[in-house]
Amino acid sequence: MPDCRYLLLRGHSWNFRLKVPADLKNKHGLKIHITEPLGTRDLKVAQDLRWELRAHWTKEFARLRGKPIEERANARGTYWTTREQAEEGLWGRDDDLIGVGIDVLVSEVERRTRRSIYDDRNDPETDSDVIDPETQAKIDGLNDFRKYQSGEEVTPAPVYAMTFSEAGKAYLEANRGVLVEQTRLQYETAARLFAEHVDDKPVSKVTARDAVAFFDIIRRFDPLWGRSPKTKERTFKELQRLYGSHETGLSVKTLNRYVTALSCIWEHAKKRQEARGDNPFKGQWSRVTRKNSRPYRPLTDEELAKLFKLVPKHRVLWEIPLVALYTGMRLNEICSLQWANVRQEDGIWYFDIIAAKSEAGVRVVPVHNRLAWLLERRSNDPAERVWPELTPGGPDGKYGWKVSKQFTVHRRAAGIEGDDRWRTAFHSLRKNVTRCFELARLPQTEAAEIIGHEKQGITYRVYNPDGLTMFQRKEIVEVIAYPGLEASGVVGTWQQERAA
Prior knowledge:
Elements: E1 7-10, E2 13-19, E3 33-37, H1 43-65, H2 68-87, H3 102-118, H4 133-149, H5 164-174, H6 181-197, H7 208-218, H8 236-243, H9 252-271, H10 301-309, H11 316-327, H12 331-335, E4 342-345, E5 348-353, E6 363-366, H13 372-375, H14 401-413, H15 428-439, H16 444-451, H17 459-463, H18 470-477, H19 483-487, H20 494-499
Antiparallel strand pairs: 1-2, 2-3, 4-5, 5-6
Helix pairs in contact: 1-2, 2-4, 3-4, 5-6, 5-9, 6-9, 11-15
């Protein structure tokens, strides 16, 4: 006998038919049954279409009860647990399933379900024929296992499939401790917005069309949309209404970050057999070029003079930019330094960088002669921070988080801004160092050891992993020079400039 669960034949066309749970009858505008036309005469097509509606109404019932996530997750967990128990020969050892064979159990459930759907004489006030979600999940799990045993291809009903929001949570949980907090929050936001966009459909049902539609909307968002304290409380549609008509929209770099987040979530779900086929987000990646981005540029000699001519109230905004300007170190690499990281080898002082952004960033950088003032106040306590006044901030508790914001204010006060083509920021100082290396015609492999980039090719990277000697690194660092800035005399200590 064909499987006609949730189906009702009226005339020559199939309809979806579902009995409303007793606690929701005559509430929220719901009647005894929900009946929706499927628009087909083909039973097989109707059998496929019913599951989308069954999943929708299961979610809707749960939402009306005020616990959508728990109920759906419980049914899915019960379904897969039952299948696993059946495969291991452990099925039927709990509740009312004890001692009941799969064939007998499934036949009985099909009989009860058909009676519930087709018998219009049922007392509308009784639910004796309605199977509770937990039992139904066990039945479906056993039924699908039987099909699997007989060699049939089994596609679980959407109600038992992992939703996209669940896939996002599973990915983030699996990568706990791997993703830095800022990245984790970004991935969490991307998953939430996309899940709401597709009504949290099963990850297996997400299509490339869904991805295209999402990015067509999100690319028009105001770049500052996430700064509102109410962002997390607003739905995707509310955010679209408030921020979705910006003239320029999000940058390509930001959009690519969304693509990466959603792709990683989908691929993780695929590894867990929750999705199949090609990654629907794969085609959304865009190449970052000069035309669609504003890269950082090095500061000009005139801008460097302006920056250091304006003496800040606090030494960190004087000293940390100088260290960056003569080492090429990243902001957080500098701010994370302890005196234990300022070491000496063969008479050469150097920074031992271990708090790096990447594996290539873990390196040693000799102290430039122009930074000798820093060594003069070296502490005898190796655990003391080079700048003890810095406190961690931001999602990841980085010591450079507050300095970054303070430097932006200081830079703008000095009259240094970007334009339509280029951006200026603390990162620009790394570009200044790279510029010094290129003007001195240094090979890229030598510059990479100081800057902290991965060497290109395998000749030096693989066959000489130790790299250059400390003396050779010292020679490279001393190539860094800013004649105009140094001639002005504003490369001393903060105390000297304050006194002047």
